[in-house]
Amino acid sequence: MPFHVEGLVAIIVFYLVILFVGIWAAWRTKNAGRDGDRSEAIIVGGRDIGLLVGAFTMTATWVGGGYINGTAEAVYVPGYGLAWAQAPIGYSLSLVIGGLFFAKPMRSKGYVTMLDPFQQIYGKRMGGLIFIPALMGEMFWAAAIFSALGATISVIIDININISVIISALIAILYTLVGGLYSVAYTDVVQLFCIFLGLWISVPFAMSHPAVTDIGITAVHEVYQKPWLGFVKTPDIYIWIDNFLLLMLGGIPWQAYFQRVLSSSSAMYAQVLSFLAAFGCLVMALPAILIGAIGASTDWNQTEYGMIDPKTKDEADMILPIVLQYLCPVYISFFGLGAVSAAVMSSADSSILSASSMFARNIYQLSFRQSASDKEIVWVMRITIFLFGASATAMALLAKSVYGLWYLSSDLVYIIIFPQLLCVLFIKGTNTYGAIAGYFFGFILRITGGEPYLYLQPLVFYPGWYKDDDDIYVQRFPFKTLAMLTSFFTNIGVSYLAKYLFESGTLPPKVDFLDAVVAKHSKENMDKTTLVKNDNIILNELAPVNPRHSLTLSTTFTNREAFSDVDSSPDVSNAEDN
């Protein structure tokens, strides 16, 4: 394949535009947070992200390289097709459910990160445990999409994969470093526009190629391969349901999502953003679906790709850039490449910022350096943005099963964090003992179920398991959802059991080593008083505690407008039941 100078120039111009927008956004908002809350301004944008920009940035966070590449691949792969392209519907419903049930309580209480409620109810130890799967999910996701971007660029303009990955990562890290959420949000607007324009421009050219049969015919009739509408075999129904629930419910407890929710100017706006992003995800999936259908309708023998189709060459995951390269004019394929690059950057920068935000605030500040100044937190955030970005880049370059690691970590988000989030927000009376038990029960059930992508053999064989052609065990039973439900009910059951044993006197108070039931006013729980402003709300359970007099801690979890939000007035006084 020849080296395309025009493609390289197009990518450089696109990257420079993105970098310029990111730096401009940082300069435009350089005075935000000057009153001592600069770290909060970087994390949640000063809580003044507007409806339009907010809708764009939330949509762009989901519509990443994995989203559009994966959707096109699912539609293209023979025997699967559109029936298995679950991401568009699954993630859209995830945003709807998040908007209906999770956005309002999180935003109205003025939290800064997703981990704040865990540390409020369960203490900093449990917050640290929840941080592990949350960090893994964000890091492996960023690494996976960096890897996909490198392969995509190499397909179209034939340059070294490593160079393209490193340059793309440096651009995303740089503007995230200087501007935080402001830069990420404003670049998302440009990136989402590029994705929409680039893919939709490519579709009619690819569809009109002489080697492409009418996709309406190939949708229901076998021409070059099985119909691209696809179907779900009866034995695979439970796998389909398990994966769909993972996308729909496991797509909620991500810091990248709640960062947008918490940056909204009000709780009502946070809900509206979620609904708009759900619609945006569906719209942005349409060109990817069409490109997958075009790939399934192409006689590749009539193209320069060769006689062997992408599936046989084991390049089905690259069907989107292959269609752009071989079925579109050169100048159009470069537009499409810009779209893919935009999609990757819009997700990677969000993941890197999310990981650094949680570490700087919930691990460094609240667990180790509670007296840290705002300036110190900002520098910790900047350092971790660079470190996490470099780590994701290194994994993209070195790890052979990045996607497998991401699949496993996203499962852990669904199985561990989602049930914990349900309990901490909606189930009164849960405590640290239940949270830890639920955490480890869910983790054990997931790991013992195996992971085909990592060649991890199962220790527990559920009904319906089988060996595939590669001699890998596959579980048909929806064991991921079983693990999630087990984690949820274990949390509740152990919490109430611990509460009964301590309050009935069966166990002495000194055994409450986590200070979760009897020792309500312990040093551990003393930090919880800083979750709310004393002049806004009184928690009877914590009233006797003298909070530490620290400038940082006095406004640690809730900004002063949090509880004056006109569109949400939660009965936070019931918080003591937790």
TrEMBL record:
Broad class of where this protein is predominantly found: membrane
Glycoprotein among keywords: yes
Keyword Membrane: yes
Residues passing through the membrane, by range: 6-27, 48-68, 80-103, 129-157, 163-182, 189-207, 237-257, 269-298, 318-344, 377-399, 405-427, 439-462, 482-502
Topology within the bilayer: Multi-pass membrane protein
CDD domains in UniProt: SLC5sbd_CHT
Xref: Pfam families: SSF
Cellular compartments annotated: Membrane
Protein family membership: Belongs to the sodium:solute symporter (SSF) (TC 2.A.21) family.
Protein name per Swiss-Prot or TrEMBL: High affinity choline transporter 1
